Amino acid sequence: MSEYISNRFYIFVKKIDMTTIIINDKTTDAKRMIEFLRTQRYAKIIDEKIPNTSLLKSMEEARLGKVTRTKNVADLLEKLKK
Question: CB count, 10 Å around CB of 11?
Fold first, then answer.
């Protein structure tokens, strides 16, 4: 999970109106709350992973074509040593 800042947990209460609760799962109490809510029939939890800034930057660079190209593994290792 090191590539993600945190998970977002959305809890939807089944009725005409929905309530959204966003819980940062970094604390023990929050993790317990999430596990409790998973056992309840009236709550549906949707996990959403959020990439950290380093991963987002890498994804953007790849999208723009800023990648290292190599002929083979030996070439890759040589470029990584530089």
Answer: 20
Share of the chain above pLDDT 70, in %: 79
Tell me which DSSP letter residue 61 carries: H
User: What tens digit of pLDDT does each residue of 23-54 get?
Assistant: 888 899 999 999 999 999 888 888 777 788 99
pTM above 0.85, yes or no: no
Q: Determine contact, residues 64/18, Cβ cutoff 8 Å.
A: no
Task: Tell me the sheet residues that pair with 51.
Answer: 4
| Residue type at position 6 | S
Q: Secondary structure of the chain: what % helix, strand, coil (to 5)?
A: 40, 25, 35
- Nearest alpha-carbon partner for 9 in 37, 47, 36, 60: 47
Q: From 74, 71, 12, 72, select the one nearest 37 (Cα to Cα).
A: 12
